[in-house]
Prior knowledge:
Rossmann fold; 12% strand
Amino acid sequence: MSVVTLVSGGLDSTLVAYLAIEEGLKVHPLFVNYGQRAIDRELAACKNSMMKLGILDELEIADLSGYGRLIRSGLTDPNKHIVEDAFTPGRNMLFLLTAAAHAHQVNADAVSIGLLHEETSLFPDQTSGFLQDAEALITRIMGRSIKVLAPLAAFHKDEVIQLAKAKGVGGTYSCHLGLEEPCGECIACNEFKVGEA
């Protein structure tokens, strides 16, 4: 089985790629530049993580940066608030659609995304219902079955942190502001505070 794995340089998606390799799957890592503020640090961390996993040569980068210029949110526009304006409409569907189109091209069986337990979801595109609907839509528009996987959907952040440590996954970057030192205020940074509680 082969899978297009969405990788952002963050802990969750890096762990998803690690687990897929551990299961013996053929992994096609895909990084999406959607015009995010943290693009430079995310991409650097992603490349570093993929190198450690031995799949850097397989990494593809989708340049969809115009999305962030059109769909302005705290994640794409420095004039927006990083937390209050964090919802980026359609972002996860954009990710899955791009991954599925790539999966169609490389004849992969599935796409995977690093979403956590539904109890932790803040936005409508982080739910199990969204994943089911996305898979049905992808199957319809691609003309064949492409599974949508969320291997961490049963996990909370503290469990992801523990599992990543146990697997030796490190060197990731998860701050939406893209600062050298994580801001400690954005949603991604606050997830780690919850994980430490």
